[in-house]
């Protein structure tokens, strides 16, 4: 048999997508600039004794408030100390103080968040309560109180500030951990025998790592600003040089020597701006790659496979004569999505199909085949960026592809109704089921509320809901999935539509419920003599309901015809391979004991070669 | 008669319900079944029937409040974390959703090495083992340093199978492993399951809502309904000629991919529903 699966290995992504955050930062101009500045700042603080030309604390009376002089590029402060040297040494204390605050906040916030998020229970409630309390405390007031009780220690106040900042990390980590804790890969790691520390270290820390780094940059900036503020108020330790004390000194001498306040202000401002910009750049970089991660849809297959015409089957006895006039006539439909780079990606090509009154036309295909796109385009409800790029959709003589939005509003619901795949997410949980049924009927049919209510109750009874009054007054979360789908079917047929678009209407339901819903759809279809477009991937559903089938693949219809012809005389190799993959009515496996020894021998002989297994990959 | 690999005896699983003195919710109400070495036992049921809970109980991920789960002569229902760890090379798992069962930020090699690190396998041997595993599930060796998002659903499920095979387990709990896959992919992954079993003699507890899938793979089949096993026996009998009214309903509800036979099945089903309803009414009246 021909291997019909196109190249299955996803194309190798450019390495750039996987490069670490750090190297991506260096390629970003803002990231590079801020990193460079911050590195220089940290280096200057570390090597302050080597870089500073003078002792930051040695003062000379005759140089008080002296201007720049030889070896003193920024002059002297009010005590006759060298401003440039003080600026460099102050970086040491200011940065170390902020780092201490950050460290305390990280240790408390991250460990607390991990434990509360991963283990939960009482620790969760206690720590959540505590973070709430901490966040409610006004930071500056606490620091002032601490200063008056404990004395003017910069280190102590930064430690207290670290505790006050810890809720920021706690909340971040807690939220990420609770989201990841129930992921299946954490369960899989547990089954693999990994201990909790390993699971947390490997699976959970990797998730919180990036947001924590971003948050750290922000917090560091805040800590520097707060610390400078405290010292500026004169509440800090006057014995060590910090940017804040320099600010304080400069402010007091602002009339005599206005330049003194400038230097620490510039350094503080530049540092805080650099940290904030760095945080923003990191977030941008991470979020851009995060989008690719969130993609859950399987990659689209390349649409180059069959340009050949679709296989058409002639009418047969069971299909001809049963149905009425042509309701929907789709001709050479093409659907494209606008790409960010201005090109259009075509996902559906040259699709033609007709639906007659009283006929059920099945669209069958695997994921990514374009069947749902086709169905949505008939309702003109394509997702953002999607549009009909070619062909026509004739419905009652009008081309829907060209109809205005106003005209479509009149057609949708009234003439063409829709049944979605996920019943629950298509009911608004804020309103009762009744109100969601009544409202469209009042708009579409122009009847009074009372009349609409009567009609809704009748419809609910008709779709097999045992207690219509109760369901009418219920909210969507109070009914089961099967009931919700019945409600949506009732809503869809409430305005006597001519055409019904059903997008995988039973996929989310249990088998026994599916059978009932299929029965209901069949009854309603013949009762109301509707045309139906049924999108599905299940051949059993097709066999149950459809009169005519179109098989789709890679955005094209590859075979179309009456249902019996497709099942018994499929001509296209892809249709044949799909039919061959059906398991229903296959041989049961039989008992373990019969032929057990024979099978082991056969297994020993038939060790598959590598090329075989690669050829069979999915 | 071969020795039993797993013997589930009267297992009860209860989840507490929030609220003061509320009766806990019984997800399993005394379930018994057994698995022999190298056998596939299919577990069929609809959503909420407890089939996934039974799988999780065997894996030690659900709280067993009554009964025993005997694995090779030893009760494993109430093991501590440490004792459980020694079982990791014996009982493994393949989950339903290949999109969330692989950590998106780890490469395939890191994912596959993970269970090996627990066994303290040397790094060099581990990478060799990874290549061997990828080969076993039909993926090329250059898959090792890629991320999960670069693979399709079927390929991801192969990776999940490779991870389960890493420690040469004797039993793999498969929780709806093919229900998120396309039809043709599903058939190939099922064949892979079969092929691995015939080669390695691993046993499967195969949980699925799809009678056809279970029939294709299982030697024996158990049908679950509301936390109980209502029918249990040879695969072809349970899936071909069921006795219990619920299994009959389940069997007839699945549409056959043949318009004419489906028409017949539909008629039989509707007749059966009427009969069962009448029988139910009579039983209620009596």
Give the radius of gyration of chain A: 35 Å
The CATH topology of chain B turns out to be Rossmann fold
Counting structural domains of chain A, the number is 2
Structural class of chain B: alpha/beta
Task: Assign the CATH superfamily of chain B.
Answer: P-loop containing nucleotide triphosphate hydrolases
Q: Mind summarizing the main beta sheet of chain A?
A: 7 strands, mixed
Provide mean pLDDT of chain B, rounded: 87
How many helices of chain B in DSSP terms? 10
Provide mean pLDDT of chain A, rounded: 82
Which ranges of chain B are low-confidence, i.e. pLDDT below 50, for 5 or more consecutive residues?
A: none
CATH evolutionary superfamily of the largest domain in chain A: MetI-like
CATH architecture of chain B: 3-Layer(aba) Sandwich
Q: Roughly how much helix do the residues of chain A carry, as a percent range?
A: 40-55%
Number of helices of chain A: 23
Helix and strand content put the structural class of chain A at alpha/beta
GO biological process, one term (chain B): transmembrane transport
Protein name (chain B): Peptide ABC transporter ATP-binding protein
GO molecular function (chain B): ATP binding; ATP hydrolysis activity
Domain ABC transporter (chain B): 6-251
In short:
The complex is a heterodimer of chains A (618) and B (286). Chain A has helices spanning 21-27, 29-46, 48-51, 83-119, 121-136, 139-150, 154-181, 184-191, 196-232, 243-252, 262-294, 371-379, 405-411, 433-445, 449-462, 468-473, 481-493, 511-528, 539-545, 563-569, 573-580, 596-605, 610-615; strands at 311-312, 326-338, 344-356, 360-364, 386-395, 398-399, 416-419, 499-503, 531-536, 548-553, 556-562.
């Amino acid at each position: 048999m021909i291997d019909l699966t196109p190249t299955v290995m996803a194309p190798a992504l450019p390495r750039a997508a996987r490069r670490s955050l750090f190297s991506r930062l260096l390629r970003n101009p803002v990231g590079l600039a801020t990193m460079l500045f911050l590195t220089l700042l940290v280096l200057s603080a570390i090597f302050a004794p080597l870089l500073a030309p003078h002792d930051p604390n040695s003062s000379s009376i005759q140089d008080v408030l002296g201007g720049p002089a030889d070896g003193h590029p920024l002059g002297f402060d009010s005590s006759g100390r060298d401003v440039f040297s003080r600026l460099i040494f102050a970086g040491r204390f200011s940065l170390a103080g902020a780092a201490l605050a950050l460290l305390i906040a990280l240790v408390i916030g991250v460990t607390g968040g991990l434990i509360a998020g991963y283990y939960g229970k009482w620790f969760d409630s206690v720590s959540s309560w505590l973070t709430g309390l901490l966040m409610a405390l006004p930071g500056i007031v606490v620091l002032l109180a601490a200063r008056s009780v404990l004395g003017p220690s910069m280190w102590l106040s930064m430690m207290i500030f670290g505790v006050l900042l810890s809720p920021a990390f706690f909340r971040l980590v807690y939220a990420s951990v609770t989201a990841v804790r129930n992921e299946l890969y954490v369960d899989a790691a547990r089954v693999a025998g990994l201990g909790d520390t390993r699971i947390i270290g490997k699976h959970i820390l990797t998730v919180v790592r990036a947001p924590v780094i971003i948050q750290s940059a922000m917090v560091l900036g805040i800590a520097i600003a707060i610390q400078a503020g405290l010292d500026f108020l004169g509440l800090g330790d006057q014995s060590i040089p910090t940017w804040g004390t320099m600010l304080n000194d400069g402010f007091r001498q602002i009339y005599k020597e206005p330049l003194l306040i400038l230097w620490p202000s510039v350094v503080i401002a530049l540092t805080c701006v650099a940290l904030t910009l760095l945080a923003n750049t990191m977030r941008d970089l991470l979020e851009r790659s995060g989008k690719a991660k969130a993609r859950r849809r399987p990659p689209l297959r390349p649409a180059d496979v069959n340009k050949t015409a679709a296989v058409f089957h002639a009418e047969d006895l069971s299909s001809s004569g049963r149905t009425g006039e042509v309701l929907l006539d789709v001709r050479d439909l093409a659907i494209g999505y606008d790409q960010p780079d201005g090109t259009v990606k075509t996902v559906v090509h040259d699709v033609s199909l007709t639906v007659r009154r009283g006929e059920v036309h099945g669209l069958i295909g695997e994921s990514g085949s374009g069947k749902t796109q086709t169905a949505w385009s008939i309702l003109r409800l394509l997702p953002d960026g999607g549009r009909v790029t070619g062909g026509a959709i004739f419905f009652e003589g009008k081309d829907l592809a060209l109809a205005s939005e106003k005209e479509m509003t009149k057609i949708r619901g009234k003439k063409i109704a829709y049944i979605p795949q996920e019943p629950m997410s298509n009911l608004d949980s804020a309103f009762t089921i009744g109100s969601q049924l009544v409202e469209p009927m009042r708009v579409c049919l122009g009847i009074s509320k009372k009349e609409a209510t009567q009609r809704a109750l009748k419809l609910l009874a008709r779709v097999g809901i045992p207690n219509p009054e109760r369901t009418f007054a219920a909210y969507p979360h109070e009914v089961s999935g099967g009931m919700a789908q019945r409600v949506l079917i009732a809503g869809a047929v409430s305005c006597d539509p001519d055409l019904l678009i059903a997008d995988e209407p039973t996929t989310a339901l249990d088998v026994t419920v599916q059978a009932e819903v299929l029965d209901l759809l069949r009854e309603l279809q013949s009762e109301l003599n509707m045309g139906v477009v049924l999108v599905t991937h299940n051949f059993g559903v097709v066999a149950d309901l459809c009169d005519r089938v179109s098989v789709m693949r890679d955005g094209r219809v590859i075979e179309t015809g009456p249902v019996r012809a497709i099942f018994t005389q499929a001509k296209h190799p892809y249709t044949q391979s799909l039919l061959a993959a059906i398991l229903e009515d296959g041989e049961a496996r039989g008992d373990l004991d019969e032929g057990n020894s024979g099978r082991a021998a056969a297994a020993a002989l038939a060790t598959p070669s590598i090329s075989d297994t690669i050829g069979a990959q999915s | 008669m071969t020795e039993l690999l797993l013997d589930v005896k009267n297992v009860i699983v209860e989840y507490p319900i929030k609220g003061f003195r509320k009766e806990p919710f019984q997800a399993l109400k005394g379930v018994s079944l057994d698995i022999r070495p190298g056998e596939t036992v299919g577990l069929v049921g609809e959503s909420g029937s407890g089939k996934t809970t039974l799988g999780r109980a065997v894996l030690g991920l659900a709280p067993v409040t009554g009964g025993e789960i005997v694995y090779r002569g030893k009760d494993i229902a109430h093991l501590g974390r440490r004792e459980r760890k020694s079982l990791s090379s014996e009982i493994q798992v393949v989950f339903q959703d290949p999109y969330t069962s692989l950590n998106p930020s780890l490469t395939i090699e890191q994912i596959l090495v993970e269970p090996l690190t627990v066994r303290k396998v040397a790094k060099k041997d581990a990478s060799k083992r990874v290549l061997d595993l990828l080969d076993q599930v039909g993926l090329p060796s250059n898959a090792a340093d890629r991320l999960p998002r670069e693979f399709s659903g079927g390929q991801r499920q192969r990776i999940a199978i490779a991870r389960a095979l890493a420690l040469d387990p004797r039993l793999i709990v498969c929780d709806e492993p093919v229900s998120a896959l396309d039809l043709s992919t599903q058939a190939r992954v099922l064949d892979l399951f079969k092929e691995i079993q015939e080669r390695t003699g691993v046993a499967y507890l195969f949980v699925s809502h799809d009678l056809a899938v279970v029939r294709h793979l299982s030697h024996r089949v158990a049908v679950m309904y509301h936390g109980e096993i209502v029918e249990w026996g040879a695969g072809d009998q349970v899936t071909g000629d069921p006795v219990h009214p619920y299994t009959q309903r389940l069997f007839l509800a699945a549409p056959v991919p043949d318009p004419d036979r489906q028409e017949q099945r539909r008629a039989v089903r509707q007749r059966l529903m009427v009969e069962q309803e009448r029988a139910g009414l009579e039983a209620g009246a009596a």
